[in-house]
Design brief:
mainly beta; 4-stranded antiparallel sheet; two-stranded antiparallel ribbon; elongated
């Protein structure tokens, strides 16, 4: 299990006209990863990964100069996709 934390901060770029959206709250994302090695000499590994388990929505931040064209948040700091998973098999040769 992995916890990703982004702390609280304030946007001070001069573009924020909505006073309530310049303070960005802290947010925690929870991710779960598991893997299991098997086969001859444990050369195969099955894995599963679930990101943003509790489907935390990103905060609304008034930093985007194009309203309606993209989600109004900081995409580098926050998860805009929601919960998603990955399943696969790795092998060593």
């Amino acid at each position: 299990m992995v916890e990703r934390y982004t702390g609280t901060y304030t946007v001070r770029n001069g573009l924020t006209v909505y006073r309530d959206f310049d303070r960005v709250p802290g947010l925690v994302y929870t991710d779960i990863n598991a893997s299991y090695r098997f086969g001859a000499d444990e050369r195969l590994e099955g894995f599963v990964s679930i990101q943003n388990v509790f489907d935390q929505d990103p905060p609304t931040i008034a930093i985007n100069g194009n309203p309606g064209l993209s989600y109004p948040t900081n995409k580098q700091n926050f998860d805009v996709i929601g919960t998603y998973g990955t399943v696969g098999v790795r092998f060593r040769y």
